[in-house]
Design brief:
Blueprint (H helix, E strand, L loop, with lengths): L5 E6 L6 H14 L8 E5 L5 H11 L8 H25 L3 E5 L2 H11 L4 H12 L6 E6 L2 H7 L22 H17 L4 E5 L4 H15 L4
Parallel strand pairs: 1-3, 1-4, 2-3, 4-5
The chain binds thymidine-5'-phosphate (TMP).
Thymidine-5'-phosphate binds next to α2 and α4.
């Protein structure tokens, strides 16, 4: 596909501050004179379209072991295909910027490193689902899972559709979150050109500054 816009993804474990930072970056981008004519869209995965948000509900609610890993993977991918086709690609094709809270690296970290599914299969599935789309830049908000999980507030109030707590992954054991975290660190090491690791233990203002340095360095025409 031809992409003219810019696609930035945010990755990290639970409580790494992604949603706050993504909104702050969007505000900053929208305030720039060079971006006056450019649409800046924030979105999230799983989710981002009505159907993908319904799939999200299945994924994030219920008991930690309520579904097989393969079911989980296919739901994640189904939501992603809807999201890419109905929202992300159309915005990029119009020259807009998309800032997305989680994307394909979450599948590698959670389903690959966390659940132990074959990385080879996951890369193949991701490629198939994405039809060649790849983020221009990925910000990894790097914080140890114990610290991040302690920051997560009870998620009940976050569930927009069912009122049920969105904590199926949070409830999964500490060993799982350690595997996911180590996975993100490894992914950032392996693809350091695209994935930039930022120390998310700092206060929000410093994290925001560090993100801006990375973004303005990556897109010098801003
Ligand atoms: P969130 O709480 O950051 O919005 O994300 C919802 C959960 O979905 C999070 O715990 C991680 C999980 N997830 C996966 O397991 N695989 C994926 O590919 C994505 C995008 C999310």
């Amino acid at each position: 596909m031809v992409s003219m816009g810019r696609f930035i993804t945010f990755e990290g474990g639970e409580g790494s501050g992604k949603s706050t930072q993504i909104n702050r970056l969007a505000e900053r981008l929208r305030s720039l004179p060079s971006m006056a004519q450019v649409e800046v869209v924030t979105t999230r995965e799983p989710g981002g379209t009505p159907m993908a948000e319904s799939i999200r509900e299945l994924l994030v609610t219920g008991a930690p072991n309520s579904m097989d890993s393969k079911t989980e993977l296919l739901l994640v991918l189904a939501a992603r295909i809807e999201h890419v086709q109905k929202l992300i690609s159309p915005v990029l094709q119009k020259g807009g910027w998309v800032l997305c809270d989680r994307f394909m690296d979450s599948t590698l970290a959670y389903q690959g490193y966390g659940r132990g599914m074959s990385m080879e299969h996951l890369l193949m599935f991701n490629q198939w689902a994405l039809s060649g789309l790849k983020p221009d830049l990925t910000i990894f908000l790097n914080i140890e899972p114990a610290l991040g999980l302690a920051r997560t507030k009870p998620r009940g109030a976050n569930s927009e559709q069912s009122g049920e707590a969105e904590d199926r992954f949070e409830q999964t054991g500490a060993d799982f979150h350690k595997l996911v975290y180590d996975g993100f660190c490894q992914l950032a090491k392996d693809d350091h050109e695209r994935i930039k690791s930022i120390d998310a233990r700092q206060n929000m203002e410093n994290v925001q500054k560090a993100i801006w340095e990375v973004v303005s360095g990556a897109f010098p025409n801003l």
